[in-house]
Amino acid sequence: MENPILKVSNLTVAFGKEIVIDNLDFEIQKGDVLAVIGPNGAGKTTLFKALLGMIPYRGTVAWAAGVRIGYVPQRMEIETDVPLTVYEFLALRQSAGFSREKAEEAVASVLLPKEILNSGLGSVSVGQRQRILIAWALLGKPSVLLFDEPTADIDIRGQESIYQLLHHLQDKYNFTVILISHDLNIVYKYAEQVLCLNRQKICFGPPAEVLSPEQMQHLYGGEHAFYHHLGQHGHQH
């Protein structure tokens, strides 16, 4: 097997005396899609912050040499009434050598019309804004994309179109994807590997092999929580 694009060893994150991630190990190969699942408070977003070097941690996060990381947050982290057009927002990401042509290519890559560049950032829909965040990340020509619940605020139809877009982009650019998701259908459909996280690693591997009812009960805290979770998301594969 080739060298992994990411190898995490003995990763521990604590805030004061509270251990949020405890002794986590996993690795991911180039071009794979890894889904991170687990209940609220399991440490999923904390894991992303550690992978991005945004918070202190113990252990090792080893990215392959030359990796460029793109990050798409769960939602826009700036006020949406900021008087910025979509074009001006994208220009903030890549001010040196940025051009109208690059902006048009960026929005075309996420299947948005070039006319959206003239729209105010606060006037576009939530789904369009999420695509614009993906375009922003793509401007950095990443080899790895991290998505923190990329469809958290989007309706069901919009969610499916976002994941279809990610699949299309991964086929086109062959980057590695690590995403946090609560939707088991998406995990089965798009992910080669799944990391079940509840402060510790509960399971890791191909979804069809590791997402047994027993593991899901362990992950989500008992039978009732497990069936409630499946009832929300319609477990199929």
Automatic annotation (TrEMBL):
<protein>
    <recommendedName>
        <fullName>ABC transporter domain-containing protein</fullName>
    </recommendedName>
</protein>
<keyword id="KW-0547">Nucleotide-binding</keyword>
<keyword id="KW-0813">Transport</keyword>
<dbReference type="InterPro" id="IPR003439">
    <property type="entry name" value="ABC_transporter-like_ATP-bd"/>
</dbReference>
<keyword id="KW-0067">ATP-binding</keyword>
<dbReference type="InterPro" id="IPR050153">
    <property type="entry name" value="Metal_Ion_Import_ABC"/>
</dbReference>
<dbReference type="GO" id="GO:0005524">
    <property type="term" value="F:ATP binding"/>
</dbReference>
<comment type="similarity">
    <text>Belongs to the ABC transporter superfamily.</text>
</comment>
<dbReference type="GO" id="GO:0016887">
    <property type="term" value="F:ATP hydrolysis activity"/>
</dbReference>
<dbReference type="InterPro" id="IPR003593">
    <property type="entry name" value="AAA+_ATPase"/>
</dbReference>
<dbReference type="InterPro" id="IPR027417">
    <property type="entry name" value="P-loop_NTPase"/>
</dbReference>
<dbReference type="Pfam" id="PF00005">
    <property type="entry name" value="ABC_tran"/>
</dbReference>
<feature type="domain" description="ABC transporter">
    <location>
        <begin position="6"/>
        <end position="224"/>
    </location>
</feature>
